[in-house]
Amino acid sequence: MPVLVVNVDHVATLRQQRKGIEPEPVTAAHMAELAGARGIIVHLREDRRHIMDRDVDILCHCLNTRLHLEMAATPEMQQIALRTNPYMVCLVPEKREELTTEGGLAVAGREKHLHDYLAPIHAKGIKSSLFIEADEAQIDAAKAVGSEFIEIHTGHFADAKTQQAQQAEFEKIVRGIEYARSLDLRVNLGHGLNYTNIFMFKDVPGIDEYSIGHSIISRAVLTGLDRAVRDMCDIIRTFAE
Ligand code: PXP
Asked: Is 56's C-beta closer than 6 angstroms to any atom of ligand 1?
């Protein structure tokens, strides 16, 4: 049965807008666990625009489920992964100017480099995943790298402007899942999945995890707003007339 792994980067984005202490992504992670998430994902970016080193340090110690550390394949991130010991690292491409991860990692042609990069991480018992397009050449390359998992990028599917385009992207992802499973790779999906488009995958076998952030945090803002406003109204109502 596939499970949900929740990305709490967007909670940290809100915190970093004021560079203060709220909202706390660690609390959000615990709430997601209590609600049934089977793991938590954070992307520690080179520019530290949302998740901070201390978030990773704390989450590594206090989660009841498991931490997936999304990161670029840089020497700095390798050291952080080795020090913090997450359940899994997911290698993603990273550009400073992008709003979010824009596409899959180019693994083909870099198999040896990525294999060697991950070797000390695997030696510590940390699993790895490669965030890639549903493309046979990239899937073959991921297998050659020695990662147990791939995460197929669902962003083009989520962003498709027409039903036809979305169907074509969906079919490409399904072919990618089948191909990866035939190579004994485990398959996660992520990027742009929401409360509507996820239904397309309901009968698709071979998916381990759905990695979802933005749509869940966006919904939480709205479903939680009523309570938040009422709480403040209640306080103000207690003030002297
Ligand atoms: N998987 C990867 C590799 C990502 O980079 C992201 C975005 O941080 C996600 C999953 C989650 O995407 P979304 O926030 O659109 O649900």
From this structure: no
- pLDDT band per the 50, 70, 90 thresholds, residue 94: confident
Q: What are phi and psi of 40, to 5 degrees?
A: -125, 140
Q: pTM for the whole thing?
A: 0.95
Q: For the purposes of burial, counting CB atoms within 10 Å of the CB of 28, is it exposed (0-12), middle (13-18) or buried (19 or more)?
A: buried
Give the whole-angstrom CA distance, residue 20 versus residue 8.
16
- DSSP symbols for 176-198: HHHHHHHTT-EEEEESS--TTGG
Question: What does the pLDDT read at residue 103?
Answer: 82
Q: Is the peptide bond prior to 23 cis by the omega test (within 30 degrees of 0)?
A: yes
Q: Is 212 in the pocket of ligand 1 (CB under 6 A)?
A: yes
Residue 70: active-site member: yes
In the predicted model, what is the mean pLDDT of residues 119-136? Answer: 98
